[in-house]
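Researcher: Sequence recovery benchmark, item below. Answer with residues only.
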């Protein structure tokens, strides 16, 4: 056995100790090992690790602070290669690399196309027994930007033994496979998309109507009918196309310019598989680059693994359109996993080369495409495909989205409201939009059917107003979401995380359903079921770690350390700010996704000390990679003995030019019953203090506060008044409510012959 730093090697095997919980395991009969990057793994340069290695006649033993590996030096099998987690004693044998790992917490899937609920999932980096693997044995190599098939076959497996330290596991994975880049700021607002034959006039008219309704948008998506689709049959079908349809868009440059003037980024749909055919406007230029005689009429094949064909595609087709105003591309690849001269999945080639092309042109790159395996987080945003418009489809998406964090894939975008089939159900659309607002990307989309209605003003009340409100909330969230995009890049923390990330030792957190952490400050739950006809509410099962929480939308206060159902009327979902949490929102007036807001509303969950660093920059450059941008630290210090609360906003650090010179700040204190010198809303338990114009400077304010609980009697009366239940039942509940203590009342309603859901909803009120 030879040892070189963190690497140990025999004639046919090699083991790299990348971290104290991450090993690379290689076996190759001819001793030909891979040092080049692969399409999944792009970096193996890790810091030195403290470990011991010993070899006897029949066994090699490697130990770190967390792992103990034993191996006999022969071909890898389940009998001769074992790794044990020292903390728990859990063991892993090599055979588990291709099966027998039912405890895996799962990762994500290539697509949700044509699904109506759950589907099989790929494995993730974590499991209930603390072990997982990434098999890179057959991955193609990535050498100087070009893909090369592997010729030396063998095993190349990465063992992750991070137990329940999910954050450390994701950091190691990001170092191995690359970081998730920041998104352009505009990506975090509302996207409008529909598979519709829009014209320049109809699309701009639609955007005008959104403006009139004061419903903000940040991205305009143009599906495939931007290009010619009715073509001469000798060229094939019009599914692939690159020439603007002048009947619909007489002057596409003018069209793109007008969308930009409205503050919208623009993306166009691509189905590139059939290549560049002779009828296309750029065919002659593309053919010359590809070395094809234009007079031959032969198509320029679409094969991104071939440099000349790649150059023809980007230089002759995409770059001129980008120069005219296309901001990014929707790569709608649906043609399978093999094509052209390479064995590499063409979806991966599409994602990699489209993203890299934008990056090389100096842009903050972003694409919109399906998932192509581990490492795909390097190429956001993910397009989850064409799903059914059903309750089953909606119910699966929150779990699917959070579980993707287990493979570091944090920026899924779903067809909010569903794409096809199903039925019209405005209540379901509202619940889907509510989930969309508190998901990575908020994109309304559907098929071309005129019976798919997503425009809020086409809905009856109350659905119209609720959609309006939540779409506006999405744009208010952008300062927070943009900071979370920065945090995802900087600290490898996905925006959406399963609850077991927050409380890994609590078994209840592993069964939290559609409850998830939304950034560092919030926990939310997606309601994915119809309203109960009697309660007129629906519920979501949620797990809350220990602590105190305030509902951002209702003001209700909760104590954590429990798993229970949360009930809400149609206009609301649970959005909980933790005590000590700080949530920066744009004011209702500042809804332009590209602009850092002139007025900032800072929401503080009172009850603990905490801090938050707001990140801002121009929203589109790559200067953040070199430390650019502006950072504003916001701190709340709470002393439970004296009741004193101090909110401090430090002077802006970094490039202050990104922060509005006359920024105004309003401070919202949540979970308070009394605040010295300020009025408290007794229903929302909220005090709002106007701190005035602070610009880029500092602000410090101190109050004496008293924490609030829920007004149990008022909330119970409100609940039973709203419910469609018998009047005599309401009278019995109210009579008991007004004469009994809290404990007596709760015991009393449990002994009444009441609907269990009604009892459960009442008990929720007492969870403060």
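Model:
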């Amino acid at each position: 056995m030879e040892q070189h730093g963190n690497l140990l090697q025999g004639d046919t095997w090699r083991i790299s100790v990348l971290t104290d919980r991450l090993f690379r395991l290689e076996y190759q009969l001819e001793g030909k090992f891979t040092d080049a990057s692969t399409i999944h793994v792009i970096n193996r340069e890790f810091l030195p690790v403290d470990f011991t290695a010993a070899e006897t006649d029949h066994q090699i033993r490697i130990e770190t602070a967390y792992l103990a590996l034993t191996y006999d030096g022969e071909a890898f099998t389940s009998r001769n290669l074992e790794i044990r987690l020292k903390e728990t004693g859990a063991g892993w044998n090599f055979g588990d690399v291709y099966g027998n790992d039912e405890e895996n917490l799962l990762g994500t899937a290539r697509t949700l196309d044509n699904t109506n609920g759950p589907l099989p999932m790929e494995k993730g980096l974590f499991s209930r027994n603390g072990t997982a693997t990434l098999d890179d044995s057959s991955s193609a190599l990535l050498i100087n930007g070009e893909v090369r098939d592997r010729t030396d076959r063998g095993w190349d497996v990465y063992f992750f033994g991070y137990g329940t330290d999910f954050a450390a596991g994701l950091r190691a994975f990001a170092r191995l496979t690359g970081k998730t880049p920041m998104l352009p700021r505009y990506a975090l607002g509302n996207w409008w998309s529909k598979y519709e034959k829009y014209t320049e006039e109809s699309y701009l008219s639609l955007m005008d109507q959104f403006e009139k309704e004061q419903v903000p948008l940040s991205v305009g998506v143009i599906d495939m009918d931007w290009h010619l689709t009715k073509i001469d049959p000798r060229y094939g079908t019009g599914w692939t196309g690159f020439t603007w349809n002048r009947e619909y868009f007489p002057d596409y440059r003018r069209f793109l310019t007008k969308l930009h003037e409205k503050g919208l980024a623009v993306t166009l749909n691509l189905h590139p598989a059939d290549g560049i055919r002779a009828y296309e406007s750029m065919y002659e230029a593309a053919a010359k680059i590809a070395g094809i005689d234009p007079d031959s009429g032969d198509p320029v094949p679409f094969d991104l693994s071939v440099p000349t064909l790649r150059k023809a595609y980007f230089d002759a087709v995409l770059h001129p359109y980008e120069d005219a105003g296309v901001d990014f591309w929707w790569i709608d690849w649906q043609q399978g996993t093999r094509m052209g001269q390479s064995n590499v999945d063409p979806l991966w080639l599409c994602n990699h080369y489209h993203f890299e092309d934008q990056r090389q042109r100096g842009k903050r790159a972003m694409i919109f495409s399906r998932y192509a395996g581990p490492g795909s987080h390097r190429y956001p945003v993910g397009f989850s495909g064409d799903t059914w418009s059903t309750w089953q489809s909606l119910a699966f998406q929150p779990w699917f989205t959070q579980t993707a964090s287990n493979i570091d894939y944090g920026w899924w975008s779903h067809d909010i409201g569903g794409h096809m089939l199903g039925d019209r159900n405005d209540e379901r659309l509202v619940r889907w939009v509510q989930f969309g607002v508190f998901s990575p990307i908020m994109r309304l989309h559907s098929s071309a059917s005129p019976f798919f209605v997503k425009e809020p003003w086409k809905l009856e009340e109350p659905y119209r107003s609720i959609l309006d409100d939540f779409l506006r909330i999405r744009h208010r969230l952008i300062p927070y979401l943009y900071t979370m995009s920065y945090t995802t890049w900087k600290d490898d923390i996905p925006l959406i995380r399963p609850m077991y990330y927050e409380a890994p030792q609590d078994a209840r957190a592993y069964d939290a359903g559609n409850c998830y952490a939304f950034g560092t400050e919030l926990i939310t739950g997606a309601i994915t079921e119809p309203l109960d006809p009697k309660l007129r509410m629906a519920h979501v099962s949620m797990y809350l770690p220990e602590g105190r929480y305030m509902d951002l939308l209702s003001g209700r206060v909760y104590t954590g350390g429990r798993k229970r159902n949360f009930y809400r009327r149609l206009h609301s979902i649970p959005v909980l700010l933790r005590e000590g949490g700080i949530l920066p929102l744009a004011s209702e007036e500042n809804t332009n996704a590209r602009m850092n807001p002139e007025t900032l509303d800072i929401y503080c969950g009172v009850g603990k000390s905490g801090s938050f660093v707001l990140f801002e920059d121009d929203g589109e450059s790559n200067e953040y990679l070199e430390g650019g941008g502006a950072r504003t630290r916001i701190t709340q210090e709470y002393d439970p003995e004296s009741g004193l609360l101090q909110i401090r906003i430090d002077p802006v650090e970094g490039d202050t030019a990104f922060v509005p010179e006359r920024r105004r700040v309003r401070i919202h204190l949540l979970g308070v019953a009394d605040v010295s010198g300020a009025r408290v809303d007794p229903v929302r338990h909220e005090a709002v203090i106007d701190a005035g114009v602070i610009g880029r400077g500092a602000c410090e304010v101190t109050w004496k506060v008293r924490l609030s609980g829920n007004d149990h009697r008022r909330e119970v009366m409100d609940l039973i008044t709203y419910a469609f239940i018998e009047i005599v039942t309401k009278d019995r509940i109210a009579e008991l409510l007004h004469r009994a203590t809290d404990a007596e009342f709760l015991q009393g309603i449990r002994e009444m012959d009441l609907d269990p859901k009604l009892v459960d909803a009442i008990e929720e009120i007492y969870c403060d």
